[in-house]
Every structure is written in structure tokens, then in C-alpha cells.
């Protein structure tokens, strides 16, 4: 499809990459700094100190992610209707920033569930408009790099957060608080600092860039207007997601392989260091070689990593698997989103990102619930083996069914 001059972004590529994309990257950095001070510590806090079962943990993560994904569909469509992205992104980031530190006050698993759902509601509101804003801010040839940069900044925050959290936990443990869970609560409460800074940066530095085709006349929640290639891509993403359970279980598995309470956040840091260092190269590689090839490579890595977690036996296995797992993210997170923009018109990007995240949400609830049930009833090998099988199947389907995108501007 030919791209007319009027369809191109209304910003200069250099300005977008140095301004809006960097500002959104800083927002992602601060958000993940806050989130990852909490998340690596949450599985142990939930199962040891609040006595939650694996089945509850799986259901909690599935419910939270599914709620987020459904809301991404609505928020993306609403962003297209309004013809603006920033207000919805700001509302979503604000809700998450105010909700997640409240886990420090939780005294039962159900309260943790309420906090997680509130946090994910904020994520559901912000994600599709944010991704559409990034896509609107750059030209087609910078798309992979832009999403790669955003993911790199996100993962940099995910490196800083667990390091700070682990350091605080070690310090508080030395004061004799770890056995009662008080140290966890203090760390969770301090996570509000980067969360509030995120809101300030987004409100002050991110600028609105209206999609060049203008807003839609009404909210579009149907898939009319999207071609069969995009619909096939959504279906295959859903297949992959059925085996893509919450990383909550990776963290629990790390403990089972012998990592201590303070080593688990450090393994999480290692994962995000690899994510951070591979996200921009992965995005640039997709700009040059094509999105599909890079996504297939990433899904294949995922299948191998899950097989490794199924059969791993030692702490060394855990460290190696966490490192390799990061390559999967570097090759898929930003690239999958760039592929969405390649396949749809500019005025439907918000709706398209909502549909993409909704497809993920369809698989998120059963994925985590299945992982929890399989692990409880049959053990580690069937649980992680199922995830590996679904990832391999999705890679084969993507290769066989979906051609490279036309890279619509």
C-alpha cells in the first residue's frame, strides 16, 4: 500500500526520538522501578507470610492480567475516538502509581488480589494509548527502534527496582524484621516514591501528537476494518499466550532451584539487564530483517527456556535460564508492537493495540490458572512443558500463516 504525504507523522523523526519517545521511556523507567521493587518479593510474601496457595496465586495473576487486557481494548478504541492519547495514559499511570504500594498494608491474599487488580486496571487504561502515542511520534523506519528504546528504559527501571528492593530487604533483615514480614511491607511502601515521580514526568514532559487521520466518529470495538493478516496475527498471539503464564511462577521456580530470598531479586535483575541490552538491537534487527523472523526467534527461545525450567535442577540452571529468558523479551516485546503498527491504518492504531492486548488477555487468565493447577496436581515438568509446547506451536503457525507486514506509515 502506498503511503501518502498526509499519512506520515506530523513530527520530525529526530525530534520524536530525542523528545517524546525519551520522555515516555523515562515514564516507563520510573513505573517499572516502582513495580519491580515489589514484584520479585511478592510470591514469597504471598505464599509464605499470607499463606496463599499456588492455585490462588495463579488465579490472581490471571484475573489481574485479563482485566488489564480487556480494558486495553476499550482504552485503545476510546483514544481513537477522542483523537488524543495522553489524557488516558496519564489516568492509567496515576491509578497504578497510587494503588500498588498499598500491598504494604495487605493482611490477607484477597487484599493483595484487590491491589493487583487495581494496578492492572491502571495498566489497562494506559497501555494502548501510550503505544499509539509512541507509534504516532516516529516514522515507519524508526518504529522498531522507538519501541525498543521504550522497552529498554522499562527494563532499566526493572533492574534498578529489584536492586534497591533487595538492598533494603537485606538491611532490614539484618535488623531482625525479615521473619515477621515487616521488611517486605517497608519495601513495598517505599515503592510509592518512583511511582509518584512517574506521574510528574508524564504530565510535564510528554506532549500530545494527534494521529494524522483524526479521530473516529464512534468507538470501534469490532474487528471490521482489519484485514485477515492482522486477525491471523491476533489469533496466533492468543495461542502463544495460553502457554505464557505469569512470571510469578518463574520466581517461585527459582526458589525451588535453590535461590535464596535475597538472590531471587538479583536473578530478576539479571533477567532485566538482558532485556535492557537486547531490546534496542532486537527492534533495529526487525527494522532490517522483518518483524516476523525476529518474533519467531524470540518465541523459540521462550520454548527452550520453559523446557529448561521444567528440567532444571540446580541454582546455576536458574541463573542461566533467567539470562537466556531475557533474550526472548528483547526479540518480542517491542517487535510485536511494531508489527501491529505495520499491519493497520494510523487512525485505527489505538483500537489495534487494544485488540492486540485483548488477545493476550484472552489467554492470560487460563494460562496462569493452568500453570497453577498443573504444577499443583502433576508437578513442575508438565506445567512448564505445556508453556514450551504452546510457544513452539505459535512460532510454527506464525511462520506458516502470517506474511511480513506492509509497514503502513
Describe the structure in brief.
With 409 residues, the protein is an all-alpha fold. 76% of the residues lie in helices and 0% in strands.
Topology:
Blueprint: H1 13-18, H2 20-38, H3 42-49, H4 54-82, H5 86-99, H6 109-136, H7 143-173, H8 182-190, H9 192-205, H10 228-242, H11 248-256, H12 263-289, H13 291-311, H14 315-343, H15 349-378, H16 380-401
Describe this structure in words.
- The chain is mainly alpha-helical.
- The chain has one domain (11-210, 227-401): MFS general substrate transporter like domains (Growth Hormone, Chain: A), CATH 1.20.1250.20.
- Helices cover 76% and strands 0% of the residues.
- The protein has 16 helices and no strands.
- It has helices spanning 13-18, 20-38, 42-49, 54-82, 86-99, 109-136, 143-173, 182-190, 192-205, 228-242, 248-256, 263-289, 291-311, 315-343, 349-378, 380-401.
- The protein is globular and about 55 Å long.
- Residues 1-16 have low confidence and may be disordered.
